[in-house]
Design a protein that fits this description.
This protein has 549 residues and is an alpha+beta fold. The protein is built from 13 helices and 17 strands. A hairpin with a 2-residue loop joins β14 and β15. About 1% of the residues have low confidence.
């Protein structure tokens, strides 16, 4: 801007100098011409007086610097100081002669095309009717200017240098208030009055921009707060797979350490399901896929983002569905196990009934076959009841008749009921601890203690023992069931509470049961607000402790 202002000022200055010089030369030429005319007129008056006194002899004796011509009233040249008058043409038609004859004085100027000089003529009328004319040669304006070129050039150089200096200095002075403007606070600037509307406009725009930036920051902070507190992963990409935004959950779920904006999302994962959903979304189609990574399952949901009918990018959501998939796997396993457990007694009942129907069973063995059918039917009824009860615990549909229950008293009752089975297996039963009162549904608590103690008796060894201990710890009730039985291998300890899971399937038929006991214990504990802790060593025994939270 400074350079442009300097150039403008310099151009204007030089134009003014050149124009001024031209006007000065024109004025000087005019002044010089007028002065010569007056001098010629004065000299002509003196010469006219001399001619009037001395006639032609005066003219012949006169040594004049300018050309002198004596012209008759008819235009005939009577005398010329520089040429032969006999050879000269009639001068009656000359401009200065015509003017002198009319007014007594005449003047004119004529340019010589060959010599590039101008001649000034002054004519004076004498009393006898003749005219006396003086002529003076004058250089042309161009000739005059050429003679002044060296001086004018020097002057122009000096003036140009001065103009450059002044233009630069003036432009800097002009631009300094503009450069010192505080654009962050234009309303406080003290500068040219002409800039006031611009500064007001800047101030208004700054307020608008500041408000918009504040609103964008607020929205960005809200968006970040929402996405960063999501357990689900979130990815936003453009149509070239370049990452625009993501939250930390997305990086965690995909196992990526860092995400750089502008990089392809394929840097985060090269898994086939991930590549597939991204490509499908960028092709304009909704896509879903299941990604398995390090034993966990993630559902990928991708949707295209359109803008003005054109593909702008895609958004990808990542959900951890490990629990859902595990539940689905358990459901399938449970369905298979239920089918198997139901099929076994039904097959036995059907087989016994078919034998009896065909008459292949001797009459004396019918009661024995009927007893087998009854036992299998009871086993089937018990299995169905356990499944129903387990379903009720899952759905929280257990009757809510809560009451205060003393775990110590309830444990004594459980041991009394298990005494025949313990005596048959030569297992000693013991009760330790103190009074511990809980608030809950009695039959659920009873079932929980009974199943743990029943398993402890069933999977014990002859001469072993089962001990139920009750107590209070920091105001919270607890009980434990410890046995000296066969123990549980390390790889099965996390699965013993699963439905139908048996550590020793070959021994399960001998001990009986439905395989749902410990699963019912787990769901009952969750229903009652208690936590379970299992400790076991193979060949030494198992201890299960339930603590109320």
């Amino acid at each position: 801007m400074t350079k442009k202002i300097s150039q403008t000022i310099l151009s204007v200055g030089l134009a003014v100098v050149i124009l001024s010089t031209a006007l000065f030369c024109a004025a000087l030429t005019g002044h010089f011409t007028e002065r010569v005319f007056r001098e010629l007129e004065a000299e002509a008056e003196l010469a006219a007086q001399g001619v009037a006194l001395g006639g032609i002899r005066y003219l012949e004796d006169l040594d004049a610097a300018n050309r002198l011509t004596w012209i008759g009233s008819d235009g005939t040249v009577l005398y010329d100081s520089q040429a032969n008058e006999d050879a000269m043409e009639n001068h009656l038609a000359r401009e200065e002669v015509q003017e002198a004859l009319a007014t007594g004085h005449g003047r004119s100027s004529r340019l010589s095309a060959t010599l590039a000089t101008r001649t000034l003529y002054v004519a004076v009328a004498l009393e006898d009717g003749t005219l006396l004319r003086l002529a003076s040669e004058q250089s042309s304006v161009a000739d005059l200017l050429l003679s002044l070129i060296p001086s004018m050039a020097a002057i122009l150089l000096v003036m140009a240098a001065l103009a450059v200096f002044l233009a630069h200095r003036l432009s800097r002075n002009l631009i300094r208030p503009i450069l010192s403007l505080d654009l962050e606070h234009p309303e406080n600037c003290d500068t040219y009055e002409e800039l006031t509307p611009l500064l007001r406009r800047l101030h208004s725009q700054q307020e608008t921009i500041s408000a918009q930036i504040a609103e964008l920051k607020r929205q960005q902070n809200e968006f970040t707060a929402i996405t960063e507190n999501m357990s689900e992963g979130f990815l936003l990409m453009d149509s070239h797979t370049n990452l625009l935004s993501c939250n930390s959950s997305a990086l965690r779920l995909l196992g990526a350490e860092i995400a750089n904006s502008g990089e392809s999302v394929f840097h985060l994962s090269r898994a086939e399901p991930f590549l597939h959903v991204v490509e499908e979304a960028l092709a304009g189609r909704h896509s879903e896929a299941l990604l398995e990574r390090e034993g966990r399952y993630y559902q990928l949901l991708a949707n295209p983002v359109m803008r003005d009918g054109r593909m702008a990018g895609a958004v990808l959501a990542i959900l951890d569905v490990t629990e859902r998939e595990n539940r689905e796997a358990l459901r399938r396993e449970f369905s298979a196990n239920v089918s198997h457990e139901l099929k076994t007694p039904l097959t036995s009942i059907s087989g016994f009934a078919e034998l009896m129907k065909s008459g292949m069973v001797p009459q004396e063995t019918v009661p024995e076959f009927a007893g087998d059918i009854y036992r299998e039917a009871q086993r089937l009824i018990t299995l169905v009841e356990d499944i129903i009860h387990l379903s009720q615990l899952d759905e929280g549909a257990v009757p809510m008749d809560r009451e205060e229950i003393d775990l110590h008293v309830l444990a004594r009752d459980v041991l009394d009921r298990l005494a025949p089975a313990a005596e048959k297996g030569r297992v000693q039963l013991r009760l330790d601890g103190e009074k511990a009162v809980v608030t809950g549904v009695r039959h659920v608590v009873d079932e929980m203690v009974f199943n743990l103690a029943d398993n402890a008796v069933k999977y014990n060894r002859p001469g072993g023992s089962v001990t139920i201990t009750t107590g209070m710890e920091k105001g919270k009730p607890w009980f434990s069931v410890a046995d000296t039985g066969i123990g549980i291998p390390a790889d099965s300890r996390e699965r013993v509470f699963e439905r139908f899971y048996r550590v020793d399937k070959s021994h399960s038929k001998d001990v009986g049961g439905t395989g749902l006991g410990l699963s019912i214990v787990k769901h009952a504990a969750a229903y009652l607000g208690a936590s379970l802790e299992l400790r076991s060593e193979v060949g030494e025994g198992t201890t299960v402790t339930a603590r109320w939270n």
